[in-house]
From TrEMBL:
Cofactor: Mg(2+)
Transmembrane segments: 34-51, 148-165, 171-188, 195-214, 226-250, 520-538, 544-565, 637-657, 663-688
Protein function: Catalytic subunit of cellulose synthase. It polymerizes uridine 5'-diphosphate glucose to cellulose.
Catalyzed reactions: [(1->4)-beta-D-glucosyl](n) + UDP-alpha-D-glucose = [(1->4)-beta-D-glucosyl](n+1) + UDP + H(+)
Protein origin, superkingdom: Bacteria
Protein name in UniProt: Cellulose synthase catalytic subunit [UDP-forming]
PANTHER family documented for this protein: CELLULOSE SYNTHASE CATALYTIC SUBUNIT A [UDP-FORMING]
Organism from which the protein derives: Obesumbacterium proteus ATCC 12841
Keyword Acetylation in annotation: no
Length: 857
């Protein structure tokens, strides 16, 4: 190094570079090669770029902003490539800004807006040109004529669709076809409203059906048994996914978004209600808030009976029921679990309607008035369901730090699917937060006991008997999510087994009483829980080619790209458009992967032996005392990770030394494997149980309140969060409270004010934490009713998520996958730690070449 400097540089420059090299090595811990190359490229830059000019000095002063992923003080050997890639990105970025500056973007936006306005005005224009008159003329035709016309239209549409799906194209024609549909989809997806969603569904179905047709007719290798078997397995999984996709589009094509119906003004006409709260082994601290909230429901007290159904037969619970003035029921036998517990209580209850809450679901005061109105409007309405909302994070939200930031696993079902089911009169009873008409329940023999998902089976029986159902997407109760991933998986196993049991014992596709739309909605719900085996096939399919040289899709790489990529892109864009804020793109992959291994076996067993299996109570209200990896749960993910890692290594070897005509096929398989590894990394990240030491979960809120000190001074404040045992407040000024001080917290419910004793546990500036201290039973009831049971507490939670942005969501998933491998590097046994550390290093090194966005500030 010194010899080179002596030959080409003068003494001052040589000394400056030598000092810079020592700084890189001694103080910034750069590698010898990195430090040497850093000095070399710096010298070249000074020679050829005139870094002393004002313009270059300005760029150098913005090093951190323009090149955020490159540490100029600690150079790496390939930083010159990173600088080149980022510089090209910055040039493109500046060109885009220039285009907007000169009005190019504005002109395109103007054209887009005019197109959008034309589409919005299209229905009105159609009406102006006599659509209503045409409809009246059509209705005046005889029924037979109308059927013939509709039949001809359906036949013509079917033939046109079949031609579009089955017409063989050469690769260039296929490219033009998918490019055209993609361009239409990119324009349509930006248009608000349901019309654009319907257009997206048509485009997606066209591409996906064409893909499935191509797979069945052109991609199976009948000459190689291994390739044929592997190809058929993948094709079966893809067919399953396609069927679920099509049924899912039907299910959510037109969400009803039902609004509450008004109650009769004459309160005397309101029916009698039995509120039932079943419990088995849950702690008293979990049950109390639910009972206290039920006591405050707005309903005539003489028409309301609250039942505590204790299948644990605990004396403590009987005494509690007597203390608060509710009915207590216990059984000597415990057959049929929760369903048997409720059926036993129904023998004693006489109300006209039954409201059921799980023991951790705290109802709001408005629950009955918001749900009962539709029963007056529709005399055949047998069941009204409301969402299951959770104020504590589930394992995905807690372990990944995504609580209130990303829609959780249940948001899609209660935010969209149930609304879609309601359109087709196929709303499912979900076991809690629901009201059932007693005559309807008696007609079907009470709660179903033949399967472990008694709730869905009960609603199926109600629909078979001609009773209707309804759903209101306004949370009217909130409960506790499962505390650990193992408990969460156990709950999903029970759901999966139960739905498959129904599929075998009372298949909705057969039997009397159901409409076609109801059969489709129920069938799709049951098929959803059969996703375990298909998901495992998708996670291992590319390994068949990389490890066994089996052609699972027997076609050229270009053909595979022209059929597979449009199918994936269109289905992703369409689901993003439909699901929006209820399920962000790619998160379904994480949810299904975590469950796949564990639901595959019980659902398969239930298909062949539906009577096997028992009801398992989901534990609630537990603690996670320290952060750790659940190695028992993680084991199958680790096996899949190692298999895919082996496929990735072999793929690299085949890219270097394999046949040249297979390079693109190997490359596509490696991309698939890399994606699978990212998803598996996300599954591993979920299994890192985050510390949870709060027995009572806090709920964020902004509600007016006040505090009173012992000296009589009253200070207004804002309630920022609350739990069953304490609150957080924000005062308008500091130095008002002191640690350990006893005060009174004042809250309002309607026009009435309540006072609660509290103790200051911590003070930080204008904020303070209070512990509710020595409340009487009456005060505890009032506190629950002022906080958890407020009518507006949960109303906006489901609508608080941002709309889905697929690219941002993909970046989140990539980060999540990398986080999972970092956890493995931190927690794995020594024999595996080096593998994951090496993989993380490789991924981090690869990611370091990706250009970064620049703030416009």
């Amino acid at each position: 190094m010194r010899l080179i400097l002596d030959l080409f540089l003068m003494t001052p420059a040589r000394q400056a570079l030598a000092d810079r090299y020592r700084q890189y090595r001694q103080y910034n811990e750069a590698s010898p090669l990195g430090a040497a190359l850093g000095c070399f490229w710096l010298a070249m830059a000074w020679l050829f770029l005139k870094l002393e000019s004002p313009r270059w000095q300005q760029i150098r002063s913005q090093q951190i902003t323009l090149f955020p992923h490159i540490d100029a003080q600690r150079p790496r050997p390939l930083d010159i490539i990173r600088y080149a890639i980022q510089s090209l990105w910055l040039i493109v970025f500046s060109m885009r800004r220039s285009a907007k500056r000169y009005g190019l973007g504005t002109r395109f936006k103007g054209l887009h807006n005019r197109y959008h306005d034309w589409l919005k005005s299209l229905p009105d224009k159609v009406q102006e040109h006599g659509a209503e008159e045409s409809e009246e003329a059509f209705n005046r035709l005889g029924q037979g004529v109308r059927r013939i016309i509709l039949g001809v239209m359906c036949v013509f549409s079917t033939i046109l669709a079949l031609l579009c799906i089955s017409q063989p194209f050469d690769l260039s024609s296929q490219f033009v076809f998918v490019l055209l549909l993609w361009g239409i989809a990119m324009v349509v997806r930006r248009i608000p409203g349901r019309f654009s969603s319907l257009m997206m569904i048509v485009l997606s179905l066209t591409v996906s059906c064409r893909y499935i047709w191509w797979r069945y007719t052109s991609t199976l290798n009948w000459d190689d048994p291994v390739s044929l078997i592997c190809g058929l397995l993948l094709l079966a999984a893809e067919t399953y996914a396609w069927v679920v996709l099509v049924l899912g589009y039907f299910q959510t094509i037109w969400p009803l978004n039902r609004q509450p119906a008004p109650m009769p003004e004459d309160v005397k006409s309101w029916p009698t209600i039995d509120i039932m709260v079943p419990t088995y082994n849950e702690d008293m601290s979990v049950v109390k808030p639910t009972i206290y909230a039920a006591l405050g429901i707005d309903w005539p007290k003489e028409k309301l009976n609250i039942w505590l159904l204790d299948d644990g037969g605990r004396e403590e619970f009987r005494e509690f029921a007597e203390t608060v003035g509710i009915k207590y029921v216990a059984r000597t036998t415990h057959e049929h679990a929760k369903a048997g517990n409720i059926n036993n209580a129904l023998k004693q209850a006489t109300g006209e309607f039954v409201a059921i809450f799980d023991c951790d679901h705290v109802p709001t005061r408005s629950f009955l008035q918001l749900t009962l109105g539709w029963f007056f409007k529709d005399k055949k309405l047998g069941m009204m369901q409301t969402p299951h909302h959770f104020f504590s994070p589930d394992p995905f939200e807690r372990n990944l730090g995504r609580f209130r930031r990303t829609p959780n696993e249940g948001t899609l079902f209660y935010g969209l699917l149930q609304d879609g089911n309601d359109m087709w009169d196929a709303t499912f009873f979900c076991g809690s937060c629901a009201v059932l008409r007693r005559t309807a329940l008696d007609e079907v023999g009470g709660i179903a006991v033949e399967t472990v998902t008694e709730d869905a089976h009960t609603s199926l029986r109600l629909h078979r008997r001609g009773w209707t159902s309804a759903y209101i997407r306004i949370p009217q109760a909130a409960g506790l999510a499962t505390e650990s991933l193992s408990a969460h998986i156990g709950q999903r196993i029970r759901w999966a087994r139960g739905m498959v049991q129904i599929f075998r014992l009372d298949n909705p596709l057969f039997g009397k009483g159901l409409k076609l739309a109801q059969r489709i909605c129920y069938a799709n719900a049951m098929l959803h829980f059969l996703s375990g085996i298909p998901r495992l096939i998708f996670l291992t399919a590319p390994l068949a080619f990389l490890l066994m040289h089996a052609y699972i899709i027997f076609a050229p790489a270009l053909a595979i790209a022209l059929y597979v990529i449009p199918h994936i892109v269109h289905s992703s864009l369409t689901n993003s458009k439909i699901q929006g804020k209820y399920r962000h793109s790619f998160w379904s992959e994480i949810y299904e992967t975590v469950l796949a291994w564990y639901i595959a076996r019980p659902t398969t067993v239930a298909l062949f032996n539906p009577h096997k299996g028992k009801f398992n109570v989901t534990a609630k209200g537990g603690l996670v005392e320290h952060q750790h990896v659940d190695w028992v749960i993680t084991r199958p993910y680790l096996i899949l990770v190692l298999l895919n890692f082996a496929g990735l290594i072999l793929g690299i070897w085949r890219m270097s030394f394999g046949p040249e005509d297979e390079i693109w096929t190997v490359a596509m398989s490696m991309v698939w494997v890399f994606y699978n590894m990212i998803i598996l990394g996300g599954a591993v990240a979920v299994s890192v149980e985050t510390k949870q030491v709060r027995q009572s979960h806090r709920v964020e809120i902004a509600m007016p309140a006040a505090i009173a000190r012992k000296d009589g001074h009253i200070f207004p404040c804002t309630l920022r969060d609350y739990s069953d045992g304490g609150v957080g407040i924000e005062l308008r000024s500091g130095n008002v409270l002191h640690d350990g001080e006893n005060i009174t917290l004042m809250l309002k419910r309607g026009q009435q004010e309540y006072s609660f004793p509290a103790k200051v546990t911590r003070v930080f500036g204008q904020k303070a934490g209070l512990r509710m201290d020595n409340m009487s039973v009456a005060q505890h009831i009032e506190f629950i009713q002022c906080t958890f049971a407020r009518a507006d507490t949960w109303a906006l939670w489901q609508d608080s998520f941002a709309e889905d942005k697929p690219v941002e969501s993909l970046v989140d998933i990539l980060k999540l996958g990398f986080r999972g491998y970092q956890s493995l590097a931190d927690y794995a046994p020594p024999i595996l730690r080096s593998v994951f550390v090496g993989f993380n290093t490789l991924v981090a090194w690869t990611v370091s070449f990706i250009p970064r966005g620049v703030s416009r500030a």
